[in-house]
Design brief:
Elements: E1 18-26, H1 29-45, E2 49-51, E3 58-68, H2 69-84, E4 89-99, E5 107-113, H3 117-131, E6 144-150, E7 163-169, E8 171-178, E9 185-193
Antiparallel strand pairs: 1-3, 1-8, 2-6, 4-5, 4-7, 5-6, 8-9
Helix pairs in contact: 2-3
Protein backbone atom coordinates (compact mmCIF):
# COMPACT_ATOMS: atom_id res chain seq x y z
CA UNK A 1 0.00 0.00 0.00
CA UNK A 2 1.38 3.39 -0.97
CA UNK A 3 0.64 6.94 0.01
CA UNK A 4 3.12 9.33 1.63
CA UNK A 5 1.07 12.46 1.07
CA UNK A 6 -1.08 14.02 3.77
CA UNK A 7 -4.22 13.22 1.80
CA UNK A 8 -4.69 11.22 -1.37
CA UNK A 9 -8.04 12.07 -3.08
CA UNK A 10 -10.37 9.37 -4.30
CA UNK A 11 -9.90 8.48 -7.98
CA UNK A 12 -12.36 10.49 -10.13
CA UNK A 13 -13.92 7.28 -11.47
CA UNK A 14 -15.45 6.55 -8.05
CA UNK A 15 -17.23 9.90 -7.62
CA UNK A 16 -20.70 8.68 -8.57
CA UNK A 17 -20.35 4.99 -7.84
CA UNK A 18 -20.67 3.01 -4.60
CA UNK A 19 -17.38 2.46 -2.79
CA UNK A 20 -16.69 -0.29 -0.26
CA UNK A 21 -14.47 1.30 2.37
CA UNK A 22 -12.90 1.06 5.81
CA UNK A 23 -10.62 2.97 8.20
CA UNK A 24 -7.50 1.15 9.34
CA UNK A 25 -3.91 1.18 10.56
CA UNK A 26 -1.29 -0.35 8.27
CA UNK A 27 1.75 -2.18 9.60
CA UNK A 28 5.28 -0.86 9.09
CA UNK A 29 7.22 -2.59 6.32
CA UNK A 30 9.29 -4.84 8.61
CA UNK A 31 6.18 -6.25 10.30
CA UNK A 32 4.42 -6.68 6.93
CA UNK A 33 7.38 -8.74 5.77
CA UNK A 34 7.23 -10.84 8.95
CA UNK A 35 3.50 -11.43 8.41
CA UNK A 36 4.21 -12.61 4.86
CA UNK A 37 6.76 -15.15 6.13
CA UNK A 38 4.33 -16.31 8.82
CA UNK A 39 1.50 -16.77 6.30
CA UNK A 40 3.82 -18.85 4.12
CA UNK A 41 4.41 -21.26 6.99
CA UNK A 42 0.78 -21.33 8.11
CA UNK A 43 -0.41 -22.36 4.65
CA UNK A 44 1.27 -25.69 5.22
CA UNK A 45 -0.15 -26.13 8.74
CA UNK A 46 -3.69 -24.91 7.92
CA UNK A 47 -4.56 -26.04 4.38
CA UNK A 48 -8.28 -25.31 4.84
CA UNK A 49 -7.73 -21.57 5.29
CA UNK A 50 -8.00 -19.05 2.45
CA UNK A 51 -5.30 -16.53 3.36
CA UNK A 52 -5.33 -12.81 2.64
CA UNK A 53 -2.61 -10.99 0.71
CA UNK A 54 0.15 -10.26 3.23
CA UNK A 55 0.66 -6.72 1.90
CA UNK A 56 -2.96 -5.89 2.69
CA UNK A 57 -2.95 -7.00 6.35
CA UNK A 58 -4.14 -4.15 8.58
CA UNK A 59 -5.86 -3.32 11.88
CA UNK A 60 -9.42 -2.24 11.05
CA UNK A 61 -10.68 0.60 13.24
CA UNK A 62 -14.01 1.07 11.45
CA UNK A 63 -15.47 -0.95 8.59
CA UNK A 64 -17.82 1.29 6.62
CA UNK A 65 -19.16 -0.99 3.91
CA UNK A 66 -20.74 0.39 0.74
CA UNK A 67 -21.01 4.16 0.53
CA UNK A 68 -20.31 7.09 -1.82
CA UNK A 69 -17.09 8.98 -2.45
CA UNK A 70 -18.73 12.20 -1.26
CA UNK A 71 -19.47 10.61 2.11
CA UNK A 72 -15.85 9.48 2.43
CA UNK A 73 -14.67 12.99 1.56
CA UNK A 74 -16.81 14.38 4.38
CA UNK A 75 -15.01 12.09 6.83
CA UNK A 76 -11.51 13.27 5.94
CA UNK A 77 -11.47 16.33 8.22
CA UNK A 78 -12.62 14.48 11.38
CA UNK A 79 -10.29 11.57 10.64
CA UNK A 80 -7.40 13.99 10.18
CA UNK A 81 -8.22 15.60 13.54
CA UNK A 82 -8.45 12.20 15.23
CA UNK A 83 -5.07 11.17 13.86
CA UNK A 84 -3.48 14.49 14.83
CA UNK A 85 -4.58 13.93 18.44
CA UNK A 86 -3.12 10.40 18.59
CA UNK A 87 0.61 9.78 19.12
CA UNK A 88 2.41 7.19 16.98
CA UNK A 89 1.62 3.70 18.27
CA UNK A 90 4.07 1.00 19.28
CA UNK A 91 2.49 -2.33 18.34
CA UNK A 92 3.56 -5.87 19.25
CA UNK A 93 2.28 -8.61 16.95
CA UNK A 94 1.93 -12.03 18.53
CA UNK A 95 -0.53 -14.84 19.23
CA UNK A 96 -2.90 -16.58 16.83
CA UNK A 97 -6.62 -16.85 17.50
CA UNK A 98 -9.92 -17.71 15.86
CA UNK A 99 -13.37 -16.19 15.48
CA UNK A 100 -15.76 -17.25 16.82
CA UNK A 101 -14.11 -18.18 20.13
CA UNK A 102 -15.89 -21.55 20.20
CA UNK A 103 -17.24 -24.00 17.64
CA UNK A 104 -16.28 -24.27 14.01
CA UNK A 105 -13.70 -21.55 13.20
CA UNK A 106 -14.38 -19.01 10.47
CA UNK A 107 -11.60 -16.42 10.81
CA UNK A 108 -7.91 -16.81 11.65
CA UNK A 109 -6.36 -13.75 13.27
CA UNK A 110 -3.04 -12.56 14.62
CA UNK A 111 -3.08 -10.61 17.87
CA UNK A 112 -1.82 -7.08 18.37
CA UNK A 113 -0.83 -5.33 21.58
CA UNK A 114 -1.13 -1.54 21.46
CA UNK A 115 -1.15 1.35 23.95
CA UNK A 116 -4.48 2.70 25.25
CA UNK A 117 -4.31 5.57 22.75
CA UNK A 118 -5.52 3.21 20.02
CA UNK A 119 -8.89 2.88 21.77
CA UNK A 120 -9.33 6.67 21.84
CA UNK A 121 -8.41 6.77 18.14
CA UNK A 122 -10.91 4.03 17.33
CA UNK A 123 -13.63 5.85 19.27
CA UNK A 124 -12.91 9.02 17.30
CA UNK A 125 -13.15 7.07 14.02
CA UNK A 126 -16.45 5.63 15.19
CA UNK A 127 -17.67 9.15 15.93
CA UNK A 128 -16.65 10.30 12.46
CA UNK A 129 -18.52 7.39 10.88
CA UNK A 130 -21.71 8.04 12.86
CA UNK A 131 -21.56 11.77 12.04
CA UNK A 132 -21.29 10.82 8.34
CA UNK A 133 -24.51 8.81 8.58
CA UNK A 134 -23.32 5.27 9.32
CA UNK A 135 -25.07 3.21 11.98
CA UNK A 136 -23.20 2.90 15.26
CA UNK A 137 -21.07 -0.23 15.59
CA UNK A 138 -22.36 -2.39 18.44
CA UNK A 139 -19.51 -4.91 18.56
CA UNK A 140 -16.64 -4.30 20.96
CA UNK A 141 -13.35 -3.21 19.40
CA UNK A 142 -10.81 -6.05 19.36
CA UNK A 143 -7.65 -4.94 17.53
CA UNK A 144 -6.27 -7.79 15.42
CA UNK A 145 -4.91 -8.71 12.00
CA UNK A 146 -7.15 -10.96 9.91
CA UNK A 147 -4.94 -13.56 8.22
CA UNK A 148 -7.55 -15.73 6.52
CA UNK A 149 -10.91 -17.48 6.55
CA UNK A 150 -11.83 -21.14 6.56
CA UNK A 151 -13.42 -22.25 3.30
CA UNK A 152 -15.60 -24.91 4.97
CA UNK A 153 -16.67 -26.03 8.42
CA UNK A 154 -13.71 -27.50 10.27
CA UNK A 155 -12.54 -28.72 13.63
CA UNK A 156 -10.70 -26.16 15.73
CA UNK A 157 -7.00 -26.79 15.08
CA UNK A 158 -4.11 -26.43 17.48
CA UNK A 159 -2.39 -23.18 16.54
CA UNK A 160 1.39 -22.68 16.59
CA UNK A 161 2.99 -19.96 18.67
CA UNK A 162 3.68 -16.81 16.63
CA UNK A 163 5.63 -13.76 17.82
CA UNK A 164 6.62 -11.28 15.11
CA UNK A 165 8.08 -8.63 17.38
CA UNK A 166 7.08 -4.97 17.46
CA UNK A 167 7.06 -1.84 15.34
CA UNK A 168 5.77 1.73 15.09
CA UNK A 169 2.55 2.77 13.38
CA UNK A 170 2.49 6.45 12.48
CA UNK A 171 -0.47 6.89 10.13
CA UNK A 172 -4.19 6.26 9.83
CA UNK A 173 -5.64 5.31 6.46
CA UNK A 174 -8.96 5.46 4.65
CA UNK A 175 -9.16 2.55 2.21
CA UNK A 176 -11.30 1.27 -0.63
CA UNK A 177 -11.86 -2.49 -0.75
CA UNK A 178 -12.49 -4.25 -4.06
CA UNK A 179 -13.59 -7.87 -3.99
CA UNK A 180 -11.54 -10.16 -6.24
CA UNK A 181 -11.81 -13.89 -6.92
CA UNK A 182 -8.50 -14.60 -5.17
CA UNK A 183 -8.56 -12.03 -2.34
CA UNK A 184 -9.76 -8.50 -1.64
CA UNK A 185 -7.66 -5.68 -3.08
CA UNK A 186 -7.19 -2.50 -1.05
CA UNK A 187 -6.51 1.01 -2.33
CA UNK A 188 -5.39 3.82 -0.03
CA UNK A 189 -7.68 6.83 -0.56
CA UNK A 190 -6.35 9.14 2.16
CA UNK A 191 -3.66 8.99 4.82
CA UNK A 192 -3.53 10.96 8.09
CA UNK A 193 -0.33 11.14 10.17
CA UNK A 194 -0.49 10.25 13.88
CA UNK A 195 1.09 13.25 15.60
CA UNK A 196 -0.24 13.42 19.13
CA UNK A 197 -0.36 17.21 19.02
CA UNK A 198 -4.08 17.71 18.54
CA UNK A 199 -3.46 19.32 15.14
CA UNK A 200 -1.30 22.18 16.48
Amino acid sequence: MKGDEESVPSPPATEGKPVRAFVALSLPAALQDAVAVSIGGLKQALPGVRFVRAEGVHVTLRFLGWTRAAVLSSMEAPLSAAAAACPPLEVAVRGLGMFPPRGSPRVLWLGTEMPPAVHALQAACEGAAVAAGFERETRAFHPHLTLGRWRDRARRPALPAVDLGSGRIDRLGLFRSQLRSSASEYTLLAVFPLRGDGGR
